[in-house]
Predict the structure.
Amino acid sequence: MLREETVFGPIFSRRLGSSLGINLLPTQGKICNFDCIYCECGWNADGRGDSRIPTAEEVRSALEAKLLELKDKGTRIDSITFSGDGEPTLNPEFARIIDDTLALRDCYCPGAKVSVLSNSTRVHLPEVFEALCKVDNPIMKIDAPTDELAARINRPAPGYSVSRIVEALARFKGDFILQTMFLRSPDFDSSSDEVLLPWMDIVRKLHPREVMVYTLDRPAPSEGLSKFSVEEMTELVKPLIEEGFKIQIKG
């Protein structure tokens, strides 16, 4: 399910409402330092036909044209959302693009939020962290609490370290949203004690302003995956809810 435009939508997002998407990666390919078993864009190996990354100027031009169109139509958007075909912070002009987007948002749709869906792998870079601090919703992913478990579900590029991610996310001082996929596979079960209990400890340590817990909604490249119900996920995160954490649960 590759996005064929740099700016796409708006589409309805389970978590963000009416969302105008921005894809900072190839429109006919996929570039990511994760290769998640559940990724709706498919495996990395199947998305290498296009490697051209849009420039900051191209993104700004496409976004301004789309915002003008939506304004003329009277179309409301709740979020301008960086997602797309892979990890958005891999675009080398990410920081400049964020600045451009905030300026365009303020001009054409000041009521909309700017959101970034990221796998958190580049938060340790100063320019990426500073850009993420400017947006309304830095939505940062941790699916698994250990490197070994992350290798089963996220299949990250070499060098990935959960402890380094946690250390980097701590710099937000809680002013971010933590996003976690809950699913079962032959090798991974979000409800197992080895996954759930240390993940909850990470939540307690980072104390994000909100936690987004969600499950499978679209076809995945890996076979044998199963989703959780909202009721199951609610029960699993009940200890955190009772401790006062704000948790958004989407089936």
Q: What stands out?
A: Helices lie at 56-73, 94-108, 126-134, 147-153, 162-169, 193-206, 230-236, 238-242. Residues 56 and 93 are 6 Å apart (CA to CA).
